Amino acid sequence: MLRAACGHLALAHALQGDLVVAQHWLDQLDGATPAEGLEEVSGTGAVVARALVALGRLDLEAAGTALSGLAWIGDPVLRDELWGFVAYARCELAVLRGDRTAALHALDAAVAAHASTCRPGAFVPDLLLGARVDLLAALGDGNRARAVLDEQQGLSLLLRVRRARVDLLIGDVVAARTHAVRVGAVSTSTRHRVQALLVEAVAEQRLGQGTDAAVAATRAAELAHAQGLLQPFAHVPLAELRHVAAGAPVPGGPTWHAVGLLREVLEEPVLGVVGEAMPTTLTVVELTERERAVLGELASTPSLDVVAARLFVSPNTVKTQVRSLYRKLGVHNRDDAVVAAYRSGLLRD
């Protein structure tokens, strides 16, 4: 069972972003002789751990190769035991590699197939919700990414750091900074702390707080460099981080050494090869409460008179709200409005 323990320990540390420790346990696993009949037991955890370590280093080829290793695990029960972690790794690879729509469909299928074990509020469901937000944001679908987060009753740290990043990309910089600082203040996860600090750095830079931006960015670089963790840097606007690095050091800010480390991380060649996984900005459609009510009624009837009667307002009032709604959705008729609303997550069955 030593190999099984090593595989699961490697997975636990890889999820936290502690790549050095995860790699240590993978090395221990590789050096242990498998007990007869137990080789497959250690398989899935180790496969996902190898993939997450490779993703953390932005070695997409190695991550893909690792995940292809699931095929040799012949027992479907063993192969499926850690299905949520497998799905998460595949989604995060797709965020960086670009096959995001296919990954989103595959995630939906995996969650549907394991609905009985996917309880809200547990770690794996939150992990997969985070992966869904990452995919939607990478696709530029700000409304749906935000809707996933809005639907949650309370946010775990894993989801709060996504909230911070989505808020940053849609331009709600103050909210992004608040969520990021909150995560950084309490999280013990290297991955979450680096993610939060990078959002905080960009937010502070946009708010004109150069010193605070430099402090957050260099702290992120120090944590990331110690573990070889580059993945979070691909999820934020790199040009803005480089601007922070170029302007540092500043009085009261980080030391020359810390700034040099930040610049070293930002100049990693693999960051240039992989590029930015997320758009610099996310466009969202902001509807008033009344426009949302009108939209909901339009989904069930084309008659503006019926909509007016249901909402207890005049037909002329509804016509004004519909014109505003169409303008925001970029459409010219009711059918296109309903389609656009469903696609953007503004309408849900």
TrEMBL record:
SUPFAM superfamilies found in the cross-reference section: C-terminal effector domain of the bipartite response regulators (SSF46894)
Classification via Pfam families: GerE
Record GO terms (molecular function): DNA binding
Keywords: DNA-binding, Transcription, Transcription regulation
GO biological process: regulation of DNA-templated transcription
Gene3D superfamilies named among the record's database cross-references: Winged helix-like DNA-binding domain superfamily/Winged helix DNA-binding domain
Residue spans crossing the bilayer: none
PROSITE patterns given in the database record: HTH_LUXR_2
The keyword Cytoplasm is assigned to this record: no
Stretches assigned to the HTH luxR-type domain: 280-345
InterPro entries named in the record: Sig_transdc_resp-reg_C-effctor, Tscrpt_reg_LuxR_C, WH-like_DNA-bd_sf
Protein name (Swiss-Prot/TrEMBL): HTH luxR-type domain-containing protein
Organism: Cellulomonas soli
